[in-house]
Amino acid sequence: MDLYLVGYLMCMWLSSSRVLGGYPIWWSLALGQQYSSIGSQPILCGSIPGLVPKQLRFCRNYIEIMPSVAEGVKLGIQECQHQFRGRRWNCTTIKDNLAIFGPVLDKATRESAFVHAIASAGVAFAVTRSCAEGTSTMCGCDSHHKGPPGEGWKWGGCSEDAEFGVLVSREFADARENRPDARSAMNRHNNEAGRMTILENMHLRCKCHGLSGSCEVKTCWWAQPDFRLLGDYLKDKYDSASEMVVEKHRESRGWVETLRAKYAFFKHPTERDLVYYEGSPNFCEPNPETGSFGTRDRVCNVSSHGIEGCDLLCCGRGHNTRTEKRKEKCHCIFHWCCYVSCQECVRVYDVHTCK
Amino acid sequence: MAGAIIENMSTKKLVIVGVILLLFQAFSFMVGGLIAPSPTTAVHYLATKCVDTVKTHHKGSKWFMPWGPDQCSKIRDFDEATAKRIEANNIVFAVHIPLPNREMSAWFQFMLVILQLDIAFKMQNPIDDGALVTLDVGLAYRDSTLSEWTEMAHSIEHRKLSCNFTATKTSENEGRYYDCDLLPFMEVGSVAHKYYLLNIRLPVNERKKVNIGIGEIKDIRLVGIHQNGGFTKVWFAMKTFLTPSILIIMIWYWKRITQMTRPPVLLEKVIFALGISMTFINIPVEWFSVGFDWTWMLLFGDIRQGIFYAMLLSFWIIFCGEHLMDQTERNRFSVYWKQVGPIVFGSFCLFIFDMCERGVQLKNPFYSIWASDVGTELAMAFIIVAGICACLYFLFLCFMVFQVFRNVSGKRSSLPAMTKARRLHYEGLIFRFKFLMLVTLACAAMTVIFFIISQVNEGHWHWGGYTVQVNSAFFTGIYGMWNLYVFALMFLYAPSHKRYGGEQSSADQGGNSGEDIQLTTTITHVDGPTELYKMTGKEAQE
């Protein structure tokens, strides 16, 4: 195991030295506690690893939005881990490393597509949320209106529901994806697909407040969905992601790589679909090159025939079973918000782990 | 009712009047659609979770600011609170209205706030059936960012949770949110201050079963709705323009009636009353709300609208009744009690309901009649009774219209046999009725169509480079339309003076003006002094 670890670290070092590699290094914001929105010390833009000049500029100009950006990536990664909890690759992040997923996402695989989409959706989601909380003063639409500030709000109000968050995500997350290579095109596409998910899943809520509360006057607004729903939706998109092939064109600025659907007889991917152009490793055995951790010692579900079932998760290697006595809290009475009174029970579990 | 202007008007003039009214109508739609912004705005607020520590007690101020220089100490989520052993009673949800760098304005007219709870599903901690959330809410205001907060209202409120969980209730789905109904939270009838602050607590008391079984509340979200300042300005401008127009035509109309030798008949009085109720709506008393903190304006507006609707409905009934042509003498209000009764009763029910809701909100802005079971039943009862009254009314109205049409067709067949004067009298009646019927139907259809469009539509249309605010166009257009309706009614159904002069020469009547004079005068003898007939009839009885 130790040998593998050394191998990992080597690999990670290699990948982190390629700042413009497959996936953004600044995602490590998500793991640093100091960057959370409640965090006491302000974010230093210069200390965020892997920012391209445009992002650095954005960070300095909109410093108060940055905690929500960090929060958003974190949200995305948590959701990724939830959605992939029972799978061979379970969205593991590595502490103490700038490339937080290891080399897994360096390849243009489905997994990369999903993580990009969920992270960019997370950023848009968290920024919209923090705007509603009033933590940043940049949000809103006064800048679009003419006249002195505040007049636009007084005349016609601001009913930007999620547009601002999407805008921030587009400006910040896509800033590094401007190279003419295929990976950049793929990241751009998947980032946008993640953001579209939010706009797509907004739900309309209305309130009637006319004469005696009748619907003579009705006000409607778009509400952001639960982030779990976005995760579900993107997981579906992961399962139905389109495989592409890279095409090279010669344009005035040099060689440009674009993506084309590999199979002409399948439906072409829309802007809401995820795309990839490299096959995923099988994640069964540990492999420092691909970043696979292997599924050894992973807990599996013996009764399930799905991917979380012992047959598939353990890649046919079989599983060990042991009995575990656990002390658990039971018969709990929950008091909102933060007080639980429980009894302690001892339960016996059969734990299955992959060989 | 004597020969009205509409009968004696030439077709050409009638068309001209119609075109002018239509132009005004189009104008009123355009004012709303092109100049005004959308009528209302909804702003999302996410409550900040503040911690009420012992330290903050010493500071003196008991208000918690979510952001800004003197912001409270916050927690991000309740796991943090559990770790720090913070009790529920010390958690304060703070919302500042509006968001940073903005301020509220008196032009916003009203502010209503809707509450939405984000409750995560947890196997161990589900929402009980009929769970009741108890909220300890405080509202404060200030007019400068530096001054202290002044308390405006404080109350303990109960709201019934109605949430459903669409996914299966397994541990797989823990952490998903319930789909909860929106809860009414607050309604303020005037926005006199620049900044508002809401502090909400969810106190827990196990012994009294307060806030037990409400699930795992993760966040409190509020949606603040207010009228847009631009819309208010356009609306006021419209009212200010319409008030004198209706007032002038009303005075002119009443003068015409008083100039006549006979006392005014019922229908004339009802039209006048309709004019008064229209003026009552029009008078832009709302201008005062810009300067004064009059929270009752919302309620007052409801009352004014209610009076107008009741008046309009009564007018339709009486108009039909007076054109029944079945030889019975009506002309008294008491004849119509059966039809007008439901209107009055229905409006009264709605009035009581409104007083229970918006009336009480004057005292306690957090009050909602829908929050308690008894209140909900009471409110439903009022609304159902009002609905029944409305159905009853429409049955009466339809029946009466049917009767009129039956009598009209009956009269049609006997028209040639009548004397010329009588025939003209009846033809006049039929024309007057049919004209109003047509106009009313057109107006009602317009109202319904635009109402449906505004309900279905997303609120604005992009049309070339312009954005058309459909909802605003609906409000200004329909408001303008009913004003024009009342205006046209008072103008066209005012008694004609043509019998006094000999200058009338309708295109279709040719140059035989001698007969015209004779005819119109006979009409006034036949129709105008119906009172005379009545009197002679009474004398004969005596």
Automatic annotation (TrEMBL), chain A:
Keywords: Developmental protein, Disulfide bond, Extracellular matrix, Glycoprotein, Lipoprotein, Secreted, Signal, Wnt signaling pathway. GO terms for cellular component: extracellular space. Its main location: secreted. GO terms for molecular function: cytokine activity; frizzled binding. InterPro entries: Wnt, Wnt3, Wnt_C, Wnt_CS. It is found in: Secreted, Extracellular space, Extracellular matrix. Pfam families: wnt (PF00110). GO terms for biological process: animal organ development; canonical Wnt signaling pathway; cell fate commitment; neuron differentiation; positive regulation of macromolecule biosynthetic process; regulation of gene expression. Belongs to the Wnt family. Ligand for members of the frizzled family of seven transmembrane receptors. This is Protein Wnt.
Automatic annotation (TrEMBL), chain B:
Residues 48-227 form the Wntless GOLD domain. GO terms for cellular component: Golgi membrane. InterPro entries: WLS-like_TM, WLS_GOLD, Wntless. It is a multi-pass membrane protein. GO terms for biological process: intracellular protein transport; Wnt protein secretion; Wnt signaling pathway. Keywords: Developmental protein, Golgi apparatus, Membrane, Transmembrane, Transmembrane helix, Wnt signaling pathway. It is found in: Golgi apparatus membrane. Pfam families: WLS-like_TM, WLS_GOLD. GO terms for molecular function: Wnt-protein binding. It comes from the Eukaryota. The chain crosses the membrane at residues 234-254, 266-285, 305-324, 336-353, 378-408, 429-453, 473-494. Residues 228-497 form the Wntless-like transmembrane domain. Its main location: Golgi. Belongs to the wntless family. This is Wnt ligand secretion mediator. It comes from Phoxinus phoxinus.
